[in-house]
TrEMBL record:
Localization terms from the record: Membrane
Main location: membrane
Domain of life: Eukaryota
Keywords attached to this entry: Membrane, Signal, Transmembrane, Transmembrane helix
Topology with respect to the bilayer: Multi-pass membrane protein
Record PANTHER family: MAJOR FACILITATOR SUPERFAMILY TRANSPORTER 16, ISOFORM B, SUGAR PHOSPHATE EXCHANGER 3
Organism: Equus caballus
GO cellular component: membrane
Designated name of the protein: Sugar phosphate exchanger 3-like protein
Amino acid sequence: PVLALSLLLAVGSLVGYSRSPNNKSINALLMAVTGFFIGGPSNMISSAISADLGRQGLIQGSSEALATVTGNCDGTGSIGAAVGQYLVSLIQDNLGWMWVFYFFILMTSCTILFISPLIVREISSLTQRRQARILSE
């Protein structure tokens, strides 16, 4: 739920950033806010993936396997960041800066869509635990 909220706020900050005036102070503030709402979920997603994969039966007890999983997650993220930088320049050159923001908004929205099953499962689990606690009291 925290991740979903942060990503929704990231979409909002990207929309605001795309419509911001040409002012260095406002640009710096909006860039910091946008980076906060995008950077936090990025770190949470990569660490959660590593932790979840580290709990798999084949990997448990093997520090080498866990290091491999973590390296693959980080490496995949780095490749994605590199491809993203190429796409940003390609989109900007051909379509303009506004389309770069549309691209960012689309990618952030896709992230929300792809993690929505996890969000629903987490909220359902929290609700069930809360109801069980209420019934036990």
